[in-house]
Amino acid sequence: MNEPSKLFESAAVLPDLSDRVAIVTGGGRGIGRAITLGLAAAGATVVPSARTASEIETVAAEAAGFGAPTKAVTADVTNSDDVDSLVTETIDTFGQVDVIVNNAGFNPASALGDPTDLSDDAITAVLDVNLRGAFRLVRAGGDALSETNGCVINIASVAGLVGLPRQHPYVASKHGLVGLTKSMAIDWAPAVRVNAVAPGYVATELTEPLQENERLRQSILDRTPLNRFAEPIEIAGPVVFLASDAASFITGETIAADGGWTCR
Ligand code: NDP
């Protein structure tokens, strides 16, 4: 399940995204890498973006293996100029933008713990990447999406669907993203569909502290009916679906991909 090509080889039919150009923020590793490769496997031209040039260049090269053009663009989603340039460079290179995946996100140790100890900086930092980053990219790219009848896919979290203790900034940012998805869906309709995917626990760098703490890991498995962490590629499937015409009447929706975690 680890390697995107394997999952997508085994899929009976992949939607044809060969006429689409997709920007994926946080596309250098983890879930964003898998989404980039999943979209490329469906034929899309992909633009992975993040701050670390070496990582997105590696992913762009991997994605090129599926046959469509690719371009890595360095951008920090907290910087409006970077975000504007990401859209401009994509249009200058490929002539259009059809899909925006707002995936960049983090949950630093400084924003975990007792809510009375949280600094302003820690709160702001989380909201600035996880929530305001999506505002910025849709503000920059929304008109281009309107021209192509494109779509936005926000990578939220189960932390956007339920409350979690001692993670207030992250939970607030992800609930914000779910709300933003609904409001954007109203205002960008009928030209642009806006949806979200809410992953459960996925085996990436972000969740390494949870995977390495046996007590926490076991409590997550106990609550997850499928009894495991997801592989990043398992989040790419819903994103590819939402980017395709198979989802043409779906907007404002958040699809949980959580192994059943929110069933309990
Ligand atoms: P990773 O830490 O593995 O990857 C995060 C990506 O975001 C990296 O490519 C990173 O690149 C990029 N990024 C971080 N900050 C910025 C920034 N300021 N500007 C641009 N890019 C940035 O995380 P995951 O793959 O695990 O998470 C991806 C998304 O999925 C996040 O939004 C996360 O909240 C969400 N999610 C993850 C879950 C999980 O279990 N892993 C569960 C639910 C949701 P760089 O540092 O080079 O900029």
Automatic annotation (TrEMBL):
UniProt KW Transport keyword = no
Report the InterPro entries cross-referenced here.
NAD(P)-bd_dom_sf, Sc_DH/Rdtase_CS, SDR_fam
Keyword set, alphabetical order: Oxidoreductase
Top enzyme class, one word, equals oxidoreductase
Entry-linked NCBIfam families: PRK07231.1
Pfam families, per the entry: adh_short_C2
GO MF terms here are: glucose 1-dehydrogenase [NAD(P)+] activity
Q: What is the lineage of its organism?
A: Archaea, Methanobacteriati, Methanobacteriota, Stenosarchaea group, Halobacteria
Q: Which family does it belong to?
A: Belongs to the short-chain dehydrogenases/reductases (SDR) family.
Source organism (scientific name): Natronocalculus amylovorans
Name it: Glucose 1-dehydrogenase
Give the EC number: 1.1.1.47
